[in-house]
Structures are given as structure tokens and as C-alpha cells.
Amino acid sequence: MRTASNRQLTLLRKLNRKKYRVQEQLFIVEGGRAVRQVAENQSVRIKTLFFDKTRGYQREEEWKKRAKKVEGVILDEAHFAEVSDTDTPQGVLALCHMPEEASIESISRNEGIVVALDAVQDPGNVGTIIRTASWFGARALLSGKGTVDLFHPKVVRSTAGATGTIPHLNGGLATLLQALEEDSWEVLLLNKGARSVPLASLKSRRKKTVLVVGNEGHGIDNRLMTDNRHQVEISSPSPQPPVESLNAAIATSIALYHLSN
Fold first, then answer.
1. Does residue 33 sit in helix, strand or coil?
2. CA 7/CA 12 separation, integer angstroms
3. Cα–Cα distance for residue pair 86/88, rounded to 1 Å
4. Could you give the number of structural domains in the chain?
5. pLDDT tens digit string along 68-94?
6. Which of helix, strand or coil describes residue 249?
7. Do both 46 and 171 map to the same domain?
8. Which residue in 78, 65, 69, 60 sits closest to 3, CA to CA?
9. Can you give the residue ranges of the RNA 2-O ribose methyltransferase substrate binding domain (predicted)?
């Protein structure tokens, strides 16, 4: 394996910013477990593997084999720490090609559950939602305006290797939801409000369901709350729960479990 070039180091630094990820159509997956999972899923194409020389991954048989299939490059400890997004770098990262967005037509042709994110801003929440949606076999993920970039390093890290496993589409949710509704998709708004009904009370659902998850602080945009859409909530077994609401990722996980069963 050769040593990283100045050009490669510059690229890795730039990919911490969304502008350059979009421009280059590349993103970074970091950590042995996540890189291994991405490689095994074959959901995204790995361009280059980078190894911290002092950690020694490049000397292990598993990683030698992986580095034969793609470009393998060595970084010294200081440079690896510089391009890493974590406080304690794990010693291996993958430079990956960003998967193409799906079309609303291709998403609509399927049956199942589509998760739609309305201005969900916390990278950890979004990454966990992607991971959970993948686990439950969601057909697609819609990323609405104000939602954190799906390929942000912290989002990717929180997916634990699930990045790219389900089709994704960025766009205005008002337009995307309307297009799906015109093709018989039912929209459920995960929202606790005066018009909400317990999710558990919905006994029979359509084979095409969109679950909309709102912003952590403000919930779902009022403009998405049309009369033909059901507002659903996850009820607490306690008559007076000590907290106002559930974390967005936890609520999504519970809802996906219910809808999948």
C-alpha cells in the first residue's frame, strides 16, 4: 500500500462539508465495524480504504483482502486524526461513492412503508432512523427540507453501516407526499396533538404507508397536516408520563415495529 497523497488528504478534509460531498458525490464511512458492514452489504461502492499506520489494520488478513479489491492507502497517525470525525479514531475509514437518489416513480411502484423526515435536524436521530428503517425493511426514505444531510459524518456513523441500504430521495415533502397519495399511498403523521389517535388503535392499514416524522422541537409542519392524513401518536401506559414526548428516533422505531406487525 502506498502513502496518501496531498490531493487525497485535501479531499478527505473537504468532505466534512456538505457542499463538497455533493460536488464530489463522495462521503466517508469510519470505523472497522461500519466499514465492514458497508462492504458486506454492498449497498454503496467503496472507492478507497484509508488506514492509520499506527493501528495496524492494514496488516490483518481481513483488511489485506479488502484492500486488494479497492485502493488501499496509509495515513500517519496525525493525518488520520485530522481527517477523522471522531475524538478517538478507530484506524480505518472508507471513501465511498454516494448512491444515486431514487425517483418518486420508482418508490411509488413498491408496497410497504416509506419513512419521511420533516426537518429532522439531529444527526444521531437521523442515523438511527435510517438504521431502524433498514432493519424493518422500509422501502424508501424521503428527506424533506431542513433535514440534516443523510451523508453527514455523524449521520453515517449513527447508521452503523446501514447507509445506502434503502433508496432515498431529497425534496419538498408537500409535493412528494401528494405524488404518493395520488398512487394510493396512505400518509400517517407521527404527531401528538388534539387530533391525534393512538397508533395502536389503527387495526388495518394499507399496503402502501408513509410515516412522517417531524422536527425534534417543532414537530411536523402544519402545512403537511391535511384533512385526509391521519395524525397518530404513541400513547404512554402512564396517565401522567413524567416527560412531554419521546425522542424522534425512538418514536420512529416503535411506530415501525407496530406498522411492520
1. helix
2. 9
3. 5
4. 2
5. 999 999 999 999 999 998 888 889 999
6. helix
7. no
8. 78
9. 28-102
Q: Is 1 exposed, middle or buried (0-12, 13-18, 19+ CB in 10 A)?
A: middle
Average pLDDT score over the chain = 93
Looking up cell 428516533 gives 249
User: Domain of 21: which CATH number?
Assistant: 3.30.1330.30
Q: Please state whether beta strands 26-30 and 92-97 pair in parallel, antiparallel, or not at all (unpaired).
A: antiparallel
Phi/psi region, residue 41 (left: phi>0; alpha: psi -120 to 50; beta: rest), is alpha
- Domain extent at residue 195: 104-260
pLDDT over 80 (residue 242): no
pTM strictly above 0.90 = yes
Q: What is the mean pLDDT of residues 11-25?
A: 96
Residues 109 and 156 in one domain: yes
pLDDT at res. 175:
98
18, three cell numbers = 456538505
In which region does residue 256 sit, left (phi positive, over 0), alpha (psi from -120 to 50) or beta (all else)? alpha
What's the CA gap between 141 and 170, in Å, rounded?
A: 9
